[in-house]
Design goal:
Chains A, B: It comes from Pacificibacter maritimus. Two copies of one chain form a homodimer. The first copy, chain A, is an alpha+beta fold. Chain A has a single domain, classed as Orthogonal Bundle (Arc Repressor Mutant, subunit A), CATH 1.10.10.10. In chain A, the strands form two sheets. A three-stranded mixed beta sheet of chain A has the order 4-3-5, with helices on one face. Chain A has a two-stranded antiparallel ribbon with strand order 1-2. In chain A, strand 1 and strand 2 form a beta hairpin. In chain A, helix 1 packs antiparallel against helix 2, helix 2 packs across helix 4 and helix 3 packs across helix 4. The interface between A and B is large, with 42 and 41 residues. Strand 5 of chain A pairs antiparallel with strand 5 of chain B. The complex binds zinc ion (4 copies). One zinc ion binds next to loops of chain B. The structure holds a DNA duplex.
Amino acid sequence: MAPIGFASHDHNSCIADAVKSVDAACAASGLQFTPVRKRVFEILLEEHRALGAYEVLDRLRSEGLGSQPPVAYRALDFLTKHGFVHKIERLNAFIACAHPTEKHTPAFLICRKCSAVAEAETDIAQGRLAGIAADTGFAIERAILEAEGLCPNCRPSDEKA
Amino acid sequence: MAPIGFASHDHNSCIADAVKSVDAACAASGLQFTPVRKRVFEILLEEHRALGAYEVLDRLRSEGLGSQPPVAYRALDFLTKHGFVHKIERLNAFIACAHPTEKHTPAFLICRKCSAVAEAETDIAQGRLAGIAADTGFAIERAILEAEGLCPNCRPSDEKA
DNA sequence: TGATATATGTCATAGTATAACATATCAACC
DNA sequence: GGTTGATATGTTATACTATGACATATATCA
Ligand SMILES: [Zn+2]
Ligand SMILES: [Zn+2]
Ligand SMILES: [Zn+2]
Ligand SMILES: [Zn+2]
């Protein structure tokens, strides 16, 4: 799966499609995709960048959907727990998943200049770390892979090869 | 390089050796390995687990080496910046590097039960993510790889293969 | 409808990190 | 040795991130 995030795309339909597919996934699993949760997911989709919990909360507050931190954190916890949103540990921030209904292990490319974040895919189970883990008897359950650098838009053009 | 952290070893000499080699590296690079910085490095070495900045600060305080957060954060920043210590983003905590004078890209195996952390090595430059980055024109400068799971000591023995 | 689980509203507090500025120490040069 | 600029430390204050606790409301299902 190619990363999104550094290329333009049909953003309106991107948002609508993502909301619709998560809506369906929740219905299928008996999860409640409540107004606050849906709105938080939309807020994250609108930017395709990682937002801090308090940035999300500010938006919710301005829309009358909640004013205290737990409101934002609960919605983000729900979305993260079910894989619709990912937390970027490096930034203490959250981003909507690029393909929220597929089972996957996300990896991220984070631009240190413009803060754009692209989600890509890894397979931690076949890298060098997996071999070391197997050798030492460590059982990997999940992995975080976050690469920091310069996105194509922020790189000086003479460096682009 | 094999990970350390899940196996016993000669801890006294491990600490002494690490301090000595960092001391030499600092001297060679014109860096000041001051008492606070050295003590923070030792504190982290003593445990071979990730300590929060405020845990480090508590120890400094009890030894009369500093009582305010910036003291701990500055020492940790120095040590991290020069690669003698790594930050575990997942835990907001810091751990002494397992081989502080070699240039390397660290990866971590974090036990969710006992919080032990083992440092291993990756080569992000040859994984799947590197290919995607190259394709999209993203220039990776550094990468964080943190795997979470159960260490050999915390795994039920009947699961160990 | 009533019982149970799940979600929200709100207040309070814990945990992590940095800005800003004064003082002290170090390093290098005259 | 004293001057000077850079680096490090001490200290106060504050900003940012996250969760505990408990009351109320809403949804789910027998
Ligand atoms: Zn979009
Ligand atoms: Zn950029
Ligand atoms: Zn040791
Ligand atoms: Zn363990």
